[in-house]
User: Which sequence fits this backbone?
């Protein structure tokens, strides 16, 4: 009988050990799962703070730097930073205006997804092509805004980036002057006919004069200026629309920075055989920041850009 009681106690004890062991294992699993969940929540909170561009961003990045760890955003490229934080960096370190810094941030964020340029329907208004083969659409209308201090006007949609570009130039001590903006089709035709007559007076035939004129000015029915999207520059010291404009400080600045504001030199020196228009370093056309950066980077004319992006149709 005593032996049976002793055996029963051992069985009970063993069962208790198994139960306690099982409960201990459950507790360990619970603690591990809880810690993992807390880490994930902490990471989520840090990400939210970073996306908000608040003080949390600086703490997270500074902490990684102190620990000698690589900033995951930097590894992905600066364009992977939250838009607000990145635009503040560009604005503070490069002297860009807030509007330009914001557009630059959006542009680089899009490019981080790939080199391919994505053009939506909302972008097409500033990509309209007009040349000898493509006249200005008959139903084309434009809302204009006058450029301060001039008698010139442009499409209201390009007014802000144009003003930002002019302000940036003036901050550098430059003195850009817009001498030509929007033109009506009637005015464009008069200018063209006047150019033809000037060649006739020099002894050329009408046919020769027409051919020469179309190399320097858009033919009737077409014209960048008739879209309200193009402007011609000269400077306070240089009042000529000639090749030498490229050597002025203003001309050099535009060649280097115009694309940052959405403008391209429409008629490049190495694109004459494509555009049909002689080199015009003073003539800039708005196409939007992303398209302008792409065109500049790949050294394209607007005609070539149309072919590459399959915009003809």
Assistant:
């Amino acid at each position: 009988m005593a032996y049976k009681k002793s055996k029963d106690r051992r069985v009970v004890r063993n069962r208790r050990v198994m139960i306690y062991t099982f409960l201990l294992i459950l507790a360990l699993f619970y603690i591990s799962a809880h810690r993992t969940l807390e880490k994930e929540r902490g990471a989520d909170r840090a990400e939210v703070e970073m996306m908000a561009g608040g003080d949390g961003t600086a703490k997270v990045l500074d902490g990684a730097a102190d620990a000698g760890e690589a900033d995951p955003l930097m590894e992905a490229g600066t364009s992977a930073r939250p838009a607000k934080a990145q635009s503040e960096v560009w604005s503070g370190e490069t002297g860009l205006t807030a509007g330009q810094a914001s557009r630059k941030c959006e542009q680089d964020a899009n490019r981080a997804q790939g080199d391919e340029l994505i053009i939506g329907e909302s972008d097409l208004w500033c990509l309209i092509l007009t040349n000898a083969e493509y006249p200005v659409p008959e139903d084309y209308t434009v809302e204009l805004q006058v450029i301060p201090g001039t008698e010139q006007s442009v499409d209201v949609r390009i007014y802000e980036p144009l003003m930002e570009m002019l302000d940036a130039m003036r901050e550098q001590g430059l003195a850009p002057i817009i001498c030509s903006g929007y033109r009506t089709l009637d005015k464009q035709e008069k200018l063209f006919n006047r150019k033809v007559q000037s060649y006739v007076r020099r002894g050329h035939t009408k046919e020769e004069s027409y051919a020469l004129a179309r190399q320097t000015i858009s033919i009737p029915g077409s014209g960048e200026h008739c879209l309200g999207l193009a402007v011609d520059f000269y400077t306070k010291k240089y009042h000529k629309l000639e090749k030498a404009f490229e050597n002025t400080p203003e001309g050099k600045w535009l060649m280097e920075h115009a694309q940052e504001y959405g403008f391209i030199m429409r008629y490049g020196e190495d694109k004459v055989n494509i555009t049909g228009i002689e080199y015009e370093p003073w003539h800039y056309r708005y196409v939007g920041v992303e398209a302008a950066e792409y065109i500049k980077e790949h050294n394209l004319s607007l005609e070539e850009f149309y072919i590459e992006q399959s915009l003809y149709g």
The longest strand covers residues 230-235. The radius of gyration is 33 Å. The domain at 119-183+223-308 is CATH 3.30.1380.10 (Muramoyl-pentapeptide Carboxypeptidase; domain 2). Residues 46-96, 109-114 have pLDDT under 50 and may be disordered.
